Amino acid sequence: MHAHIIYENDDWMPPLRAALDRADVPYDEAVIHEGHFDVTEAPPEGVFLNRMSASSHTRGHTASVEHTRQLLAWLERHGRRVINGLHAFELEISKVQQHAALEQAGIRTPATRAIAGGPEALVAAAQDFPTPFITKHNRGGKGLGVQLFRTVEAFEAAVKAGDWTPPPAHITLLQQYIEAAEPFITRCEFVDGTLQYAITSDTSDGFELCPAEACRSEEERHAIDGDASLFALREDVPAALIDRYARFLRREQIDIAGIEFIEDAEGRCWTYDINSTTNYAPEVEEKHGLSGMAAVADLLQRERERAATAPASA
């Protein structure tokens, strides 16, 4: 029984392919961009891993997210096991839904306002929103659309000057800016409800913080070669927070995710993002003998074995 990998960005695939090969997991790949599937037919047997990215539009794959939503619904209607299935994907592509789910679970999040519309709607929504705040896209990825504004006037001037990129799903967020005690965020990597490790990401130069090798500029790769990585292992994440995250992921049917938080000067943790299409920092893994993708491959192997002994699906 095969594993089927659903994705759109080939640059992010080599570490997963290597892990699957090492674990001897048979798999095939489905690039979801343009194409078709027959909704009147049954899907192939096997276990499906959803690796679709919320930032697919930045690579010209504007149909990929909606295509994937329909594909996952079809697979799950036929009883196929999908790792990071439709419910998890809906959270991946909507920070509004993420924040609502986190709040419901009792996890502290920054105040956030969702805005539909253009410049006039943005300016109107900001008038009574506490400053400083950041803007971000409801569906973005890679920190795209994130800007810090200390005053409403500065935001209004930027909007009127056209220094604002319309989001792909039409919803812009204003979000309370959390002043970090130190200039970094923490990302906790989970697979199948278990923390694999946590890393810190240096935010001194901005918020576009994809840890994967494929996301790096030539300058960043050179800095990493010189032992000046933006990412470092963190081993003192509060155990209570890890437990809360694990319970949250089980509740929300998220099999694989990186969860990001900021700590303020009072030591409070503010959770602001869930990345279910997670990538891993190779220099951190190599230095400490870790492998997030090996854990993903192990999960796929377990699910394949479980599906092979389950009653036949429709």
CATH topology call of the largest domain: D-amino Acid Aminotransferase, Chain A, domain 1
The average pLDDT is 91
Helix content: 25-40%
Helix-strand string: EHEEHEHHEHEEHEEEHEHEEHH
Rg on CA atoms, Å:
20 Å
Count the E strands.
13
Indicate the overall shape. Answer: globular
Q: What does this molecule look like?
A:
By secondary structure, this protein is α+β, with helices and mostly antiparallel strands. It folds into three domains: 3-87 and 296-309, 3-Layer(aba) Sandwich (Rossmann fold), CATH 3.40.50; 92-108 and 180-289, D-amino Acid Aminotransferase, Chain A, domain 1; 112-176, ATP-grasp fold, A domain (Dna Ligase, domain 1), CATH 3.30.1490.20. The chain has ten helices and 13 strands. It has helices spanning 14-22, 64-77, 86-92, 95-104, 119-126, 152-160, 218-225, 239-251, 282-288, 292-309, and strands at residues 3-7, 27-31, 47-50, 81-83, 112-116, 133-137, 147-149, 171-176, 184-191, 194-202, 231-234, 256-263, 269-275. The strands form three sheets. Strands 11-10-9-12-13 form a five-stranded antiparallel β-sheet, sandwiched between helices. A four-stranded parallel β-sheet has the order 2-1-3-4, with helices on both faces. Strands 5-8-6-7 form a four-stranded antiparallel β-sheet, with helices on both faces. Strand 9 and strand 10 form a beta hairpin. The longest helix has 18 residues, at 292-309. It is globular. Residues 216-226 have low confidence and may be disordered.
Task: Reconstruct the topology from this structure.
Elements: E1 3-7, H1 14-22, E2 27-31, E3 47-50, H2 64-77, E4 81-83, H3 86-92, H4 95-104, E5 112-116, H5 119-126, E6 133-137, E7 147-149, H6 152-160, E8 171-176, E9 184-191, E10 194-202, H7 218-225, E11 231-234, H8 239-251, E12 256-263, E13 269-275, H9 282-288, H10 292-309
Parallel strand pairs: 1-2, 1-3, 3-4
Antiparallel strand pairs: 5-8, 6-7, 6-8, 9-10, 9-12, 10-11, 12-13
